[in-house]
Write a structure and sequence with these properties.
By secondary structure, the chain is of the alpha/beta class. It has helices at residues 12-22, 36-46, 60-69, 98-114, 136-140, 151-156, 165-190, 217-224, 226-230, 240-252, 281-301, and strands at residues 2-7, 27-33, 50-54, 76-79, 121-126, 196-202, 263-265. It is globular, with a radius of gyration of 18 Å.
């Protein structure tokens, strides 16, 4: 039985990905979740080949515990867990801005810690079209694209002082997703595909998910109701079920094996609206080296 881990899999894309992977009873799927009760309920609803384990990606110490406790080899890791915080600036127990910590640094720490278990396996990072400054659809929702200075600056929570609190949150989300996409491409450069393969997925706009939970009430209502009906008419839109099926395909299909470092869209095609900086080697070295340094720095401080 091959084993896959999906982080943040109690709802939305993560839950749909876990369900698609678990459709094959020869696979074991582990939901790595912050809320264990919800994780167990989700696992029970999917099937007997699904279990839940506690993991708080906002805590590098808890990530270390999860890695140390893990037993056995892995066929794949889906770094799905993510937050979008638009009502405040929050710091984790490690002192890092929460969006950067959960969406990116936690995913990097988990991936590198489990890498010895992923020989012959695959790792998927979740990106977003919001990372691209030229994405017109994203701009309609207030996104300006990644605001890249450095990973260190993002982890400190540095921001545009002229921006509103909501705008800062949107910028931080887009930047964290840019980091994820860059990391997938850079790790593919550093590791032979026959050892471990790395991919990124832009799952598209998926109204109705819990991503907008910190948005103003009117925006939350629109996200969970009106936009769900309008979305099929808009470009780059999808549903958790559709994008989850694509994520599962990336993790398992033979056709994907030779594409390590690719960024896929929700329909399984190579994403067409990717900022060219995602594939820039200098940017890749900067993002990954700084991310690893921040993870190790905090580990050494404990």
């Amino acid at each position: 039985m091959t084993t896959f881990i999906v982080t943040g899999a109690t709802q939305g894309l993560g839950l749909a990905t876990a369900r698609a992977l678990a459709a094959d009873s020869r696979r074991r799927v582990v939901l790595a979740v912050r809320d264990l009760d919800r994780g167990r309920a989700a696992a029970a609803a999917i099937g007997s080949n699904v279990t839940a384990l506690p993991l708080d990606l906002a805590s590098l110490g808890d990530i270390e515990r999860f890695i140390a406790d893990w037993q056995g080899d892995l066929a794949g890791l889906v770094n799905n867990a993510g937050v979008q915080i638009t009502d405040d600036t929050r710091l984790t127990c490690d002192g890092y801005e929460e969006t950067c910590a959960v969406n990116h640094l936690g995913a990097v720490a988990l991936t590198l810690g489990l890498l010895p278990r992923l020989v012959g396996g695959r790792v998927l990072f979740i990106g977003s079209g919001t990372h691209h400054p030229g994405n017109r659809m994203a701009s309609l929702f207030g996104f300006r694209g990644a605001r890249l200075t450095s990973v260190r600056a993002a982890a400190r929570g540095d921001h545009d002082d002229a921006a509103s609190i909501r705008q800062r949150g949107l910028d931080r989300y887009a930047t964290s997703k840019f980091f994820n996409m860059v990391t997938a491409v850079e790790l593919a450069r550093r590791h032979p595909a026959e050892v471990t393969s790395f991919f990124a997925l832009d799952p598209g706009l998926m109204p109705g998910t819990g991503l907008a939970r910190t948005a103003p009430l009117a925006a939350r209502l629109a996200w969970s109701s009106v936009l769900r009906w309008v979305a099929p008419l808009l470009p780059d839109t999808s549903t958790p079920t559709r994008s989850g099926a694509t994520a599962a395909w990336i993790m398992t299909a033979d056709a994907v094996e030779a594409s390590s470092g690719a960024v896929f869209a929700h329909d399984g095609a190579h994403a067409r609206r990717v900022w060219d900086r995602v594939f820039d080697p200098a940017t890749g070295r900067l993002v990954v080296d700084e991310s690893v340094a921040l993870v190790q720095q905090r580990r050494g401080a404990r």
